Amino acid sequence: MDEGQNNLVMCRELGRDYGGQTAVSSLSFSLARGEVLGFLGPNGAGKSTTMNMLSGCLAPSRGEVEICGIDLLASPAQAKAHIGYMPEHPPLYPELTVDEYLRFAARLRGLPRRRVKAAVETARERCGLADVGHRPIGQLSRGYQQRVGIAQAIVHEPALVILDEPTVGLDPNQVREIRALIQTLARDHGVILSTHILPEVAAVCSRVQIMVRGQLVFESPMAELGDAGEGGGRLKLHLSEQAEADPLAGLSGVSRVETLGPGQFRLHHAGNKELAPAVAQLAVDRGWSLYRLEPETRDLEQIFVSLTSGEEADAA
Ligand SMILES: Nc1ncnc2c1ncn2[C@@H]1O[C@H](COP(=O)(O)OP(=O)(O)OP(=O)(O)O)[C@@H](O)[C@H]1O
């Protein structure tokens, strides 16, 4: 399988200026199949500008974007066929019924007429809209209107779904429903979710990126954060100087070993509660002295606050 098939998104040195002001400076990242990437940042960080560029709605000032291996700038129509986008304010037509609007969205995405009916039914079903197909969008609650916004984004079965602030303005029950919907979407699509709601990222994302002043300042798989659902995290240890990294890397659940200094390591793991005793046993077996063994938790909220405090006031 080539790189284009593995990577739904590949962006390199992507940037956008508005007049003389840089909104996004130089962004490079990729999204693989099966990932839900949370894009976090304070107000004005450049999230919406990035989503608009990734979806082909806004031309970058510099850099490259590939969608499923297709250059978005050189071949926009082919690349966009793989993208479903729900902007922060989805362009819904309140006077149209849900079915009329989804049929319109399907045709707009280039679906042949004969496939439209089935595509609309599938999208309606997946987004919990089965009973409201005949209702005018303007008469639906805010939560249902968001579902319609998501349904129009997936009606053509794109590989990549980009959702910009999908739960803003919803009540707690509606928020839960939309998050559950995003998780089901992740089974069949790669998802990029722009938000500034931290629990949303913890609830639905497999990876998180934090953006500040148009730059990526943090990136981590959720499993490596202290507050990840599966309890993934890091274990820092200080052993005698002759200790080697290889046997540590072979311990069950260890995803990566960082060498911090002679005999000093950081083990990244996916929530193995038995790791500390296993390290102690390994030290005994190998005759290493164990000076220090401590879990390191990195709470997403702490990381976000330390990287972004003061930013929103500046942006305003
Ligand atoms: N059309 C525009 N013209 C000029 N400046 C813009 C335009 N759109 C956005 N900006 C500026 O670019 C910067 C990034 O804005 P953007 O909307 O991408 O941020 P954001 O992270 O999505 O913010 P929020 O969380 O408030 O939606 C901000 O300083 C904003 O004022």
From TrEMBL:
SMART domains: AAA (SM00382). It comes from the Bacteria. It holds the Pfam family ABC_tran. Residues 9-238 form the ABC transporter domain. Keywords: ATP-binding, Nucleotide-binding, Transport. InterPro entries: AAA+_ATPase, ABC_transporter-like_ATP-bd, P-loop_NTPase. GO terms for molecular function: ATP binding. Belongs to the ABC transporter superfamily. This is ABC-2 type transport system ATP-binding protein.
